Structures are given as structure tokens and as C-alpha cells.
Amino acid sequence: MSISVETFFLDPSAEGTLQARIQQMVAQGILAGRIRPGERLPSSRKMAAHLGVSRITVTLAYTELVADDYLTSRGRSGYFVSDNAPEPPAFPAQRAHVGTVDWARTIGQRFTPGLSLNKPADWADYRYQFIYGQTDKTLFDSANWRLCALRALGMRDFSALTSDYFDGDDPQLVDFIARQTLPRRGILANPDEILVTMGAQNALWLSAQVLLNSRRRAAIEDPCYPALRTILTQSRCQLSVVPVDQDGLPPDDLPADTDVVFTTPSHQCPTAATMPLERRNALLEKAEAEDFIIVEDDYEFEMSFLKSPSPSLKSLDKNGRVIYVGSFSKSLFPGLRLGYLVGPAPFIREARALRATVLRHPPGHIQRTVSYYLSLGHYDALIRRMSKTYHERRQLLVGALNQRGLTIAGQGTYGGSSVWLKTPTGIDTSALAETLRADSVLVEPGAPFFAGENPPTAYLRLAYSSIPSARIPEGINLIADAIQNY
């Protein structure tokens, strides 16, 4: 029996190459039972004409399906569904039409979204992308990343790909972090003082769970990373909010009964303020005198293109009071979700045990791929390329803001990838952001970064990590015009 060519169509929402989409289309037809073993597929010529693609694309898709035993080729007779193709389920899939569970009563604990930042999924389609943390594909070294991933898939690294490390990590990655990454921040650590995490946010969650309970008090910066505030709220600890100034967190404003302080000294989130060395030492002295722990989120330390970065708090710590959080996701790409915790061995031991109850360890293949990307020098080359481009974009951004008379409320002393903007009194930047979307401009309102029921509404975070340099001045003009016409 031959299948009509009209049976097939490409899903316009599907992703991937045309060849991959055709493979997926045929495989889904087989898995759904619409195409049965022994049935003949349309010829590559007919299928190509029907789908509006080249014949070689269809032929390559059919060939891959033959290799996977979905199809079989019978000489000049064409392609047929293989007798060994997966069988569809013997029973139809069903969906419950009426739910009888009262989920409002059944859910034992409620969780609020951790980010509170509205970043549309189609951000890349906007012309002026002043949003933070997204990858600029023109800067990313995808070719060498792909080669490192393929190397990690080789038989030599088969154990790294397939092994269950239980509660451990890839020793090759841990060794590189200990010997190369941490010394650049002035930190020396043994392998038992390092834990690989699923990004910095996972590291912050682990830290909060290990260090805090309902009787202990945590202090956070205001404004701060919204997900951190959510993590600490869910931990049910006592929470103190400490407003930052132009130098970051003021140690003198910390409550006397503080147990754990969470801070971003290199690039305060989101104001980008850099904590001076004197204040760093004062914070460490206060921690020792008042017996509290510091969790240092050292995000974006690599983006120090204006001058060399100041020492990390962890490098200045002589008493083992600083837990250090680092991330590869910020500098490589956010979807990587790979970071690390560094702290005294007793703390890391507890964090490792907690991590094992949730996810055991990050995927071995991802860890080994990152290890190769770091050790072969590709990461350093990427950072140099990004720093040069970010420096250029920052100069354009600051120049355009100054030209239009807009107020920069915070910008990193050493670099970074964003500035903190304050608009005139009376402007709600959340409403402003919605208005700007109509002009294909994406900005981040500042309100979600603040604690309290009535946060300030006059702030914006403008990032330059994703927007091309040539579009920055025009984008700033659109923002300035929208503020004037508000």
C-alpha cells in the first residue's frame, strides 16, 4: 500500500533544519500509527515537490530514518515503513475531562515565581534588546563549543558521559576550577571545598537551605536579584532588607542579630555598584566580630574591561566566613545552567548531600564539555572578545544617555554588561516598558528588584550584552522620546 503525499505537512512551529523537520514529521506519523509497517512512502521527488524543498533534503531525511530502522529501502521500489519500526501504543491516549481534586486544598505548600522579571520568549525578534543575560550569537564561539561537545562524546570520555557520580562531580572540571578559575579571583581551594551546581541560582538555594532556618536571620541588599529574595522567603528565615548606596552594601547598616549576609560586591545586582576594598574589609571584620557568614555572588567578574577587578571577598577572608558563588552561565550562555560553590569543607559536605537528594549531580557530559572548553583556551578567547565588544557598546550607551540628558544611577566601576537608569519623578517604568515594546524596544523595569509592597517605579536596567552597537544610539533615542512623552 502506498501513502498519499497529502498525508504529510511540515509543522510551521517546529524548529531545526528542513531535513530534521522532515525526519520528525515521518517519525511522528509512524509513532502515532498513521503510517503502518510495510506501507510505501511517497518518492523523494513527489515529497520534495509537495513540501516545496529540494529532493536531496528529502533523500537525506529518508536515509537517516533508514539508519534508525524507521524505514527500509527496497531498491527501485522506494522507501517503506520498516517491520521493525516502533509500534504505536495499543490503547488510545486519554485526557481527564473532569478533575475531582480540590487543588487549592491539596497543595501543601505554595511557591511564587522566583524571577519576577518579564522577559518575552521572542526577545531576539525585537530590534532594540536592552535586556540582561541573553547570549549574543555573533560573539559566541559555537564552532569550538560543538567540537568540545563532540570530544566529550568520544569513547575516551565514555565514563564521563555515562557514569553516575552519585554525589560527586567531574574531577576534570573540579580540577580546572581549583587550578585556573579560582586563582584568578585570588582564591585557593581543595577539591572537597568545591561543588558544581546547576547555575548560580541553584548555588544560592543550596546555601540558603544549609545555612538558614526559621530562627536565623538573613540580610540581603535592596534592590537585589529577585530570585534570591524569593529563595529566602521560601526558606522561612527572618529576613532583613538593607538599602545599598553608590558603593554597594553598607556594613554598618546590617542588623546586630544577622546570621547570613548575601551580597554582590563586584557588580551589585542590579545597580552595578562596585564595593570598594575598604568596605570589603570592613564587612569581613564585622562578620568576624559579630559571628555571621557571608555568601558572595561574584557574577560577571570576568567582564572587568575598564580595569582589573578588585579582590573577591573570598580571597580576603582569613577566617573561613565567606561562601563563594560563581557561574559559567553568565559568560557562556544562560541555558548552560552550570555554576559552582566554594566554601569550607564542612559546608560543602552538607551542600553536596542536599544536592544529591534533589538532582545527584549536573549531567556528566555537560561538565566534561565545559572542562574541555575551559582547558583548551576557548573560554579565555571568548571573554576577551566579549570584553572588547562590551566596552565599545558601553561607551556608545553612556554617550547616548548623556547626550539625551538621562540619569545613570549606577554603573560598574570595572565593567559589567548593564547600567542602572533613573527616570524623572512620576514615571512608572513598567508602563513605560510596555509602551516601548510597540517600537520594538525591550527594557527591564526596576521595580521587581526592590523589596516591599510599594517599590520605587522610576528605575530601569539597560543591558548591552545582546544589542548590536549600531542600534544603541537609536534605541536610546526611542527611550528618551518615550520618557519625554510619558
From TrEMBL:
SMART domains, alphabetized: HTH_GNTR
Matches recorded under CDD domains: AAT_like, WHTH_GntR
The entry's keywords: Aminotransferase, DNA-binding, Pyridoxal phosphate, Transcription, Transcription regulation, Transferase
Top-level lineage group: Bacteria
Keyword DNA-binding attributed: yes
One MF term in the entry's GO annotations: transaminase activity
Family annotation (PROSITE patterns): HTH_GNTR (PS50949)
Protein name per the record: PLP-dependent aminotransferase family protein
Taxonomic lineage: Bacteria, Pseudomonadati, Pseudomonadota, Alphaproteobacteria, Rhodobacterales
